[in-house]
Amino acid sequence: MAVISGLMRVMEKAARKAGGRLRRDFGEVEHLQVSRKGPADFVSKADQRAERTLWDELRAARPDWGFVMEEGGVIEGDPGKPRFIIDPLDGTSNFLHGIPHFAISIAVQEPKLDGSGWGDVTAALVYQPITDESYWAEKARGAWLQDARLRVSGRRHLDESLIATGIPFAGAGDPAEWMKIYTALAPQVAGIRRFGAASLDLAWVAAGRYEGFWESNLKPWDTAAGCLLVREAGGFVSDWRGISQPVCDKQVLAGNDALHSRLHKVIVGALKA
Question: What is the DSSP string of 60-115?
């Protein structure tokens, strides 16, 4: 059984409190007040309330840490201390359409020792309020679903692999780039899925439900927690060049050791064509 650190307990308590409120709001989704934040990009009162709950809980426990939040932006803390990267509702469009597939994502990122910026993500939590699934990881301590250890899929061949992605939509993403990758990859794999919540896609790669995932033009709060989950479950995360960064968001490619390299070759070949 996993021994949960004090920090992870703080993160899970915050996520479960915010998640309880999201569950209640989800049950009355038709009554939510919704405003447009951009083309096909919605923000609801539920989203804002969840972020405020996370902020209140985490700030009370770590008052000198900084925050990067989808709605609240960057809030600087002590420059020598870590910061939280938060998405209070990943899968907002699913939520607003009554689709029960969304998550709360929280990551902890450490400052670089030389003070030149931000370095490794060392703790991660992706919480699915509807299923009550809590995916979490700490650097060098593995990835877990509740108290069950997670490992990426052991499949080694593309033709038996299920791959997840995010499809560009109005005003977001690069449809031409995505179509090149899809056209090259689809004939080689067992299936491609688009469920609409990148944090859960990455958590499901860590859990071995998917063999891989690709998407581009995301934000740090979409992927910071998921990247650590995949890595601590024995997988790899990089950009299209194959370079691993603490938070891959502009370009994200995740998979196990064998399939990551094969997926990388497919993407490189597709974008050169």
Answer: HHSTT-EEEETTTEEE---TTS-EEEEEEEETHHHHHTT-S--EEEEEEEEEPTTS
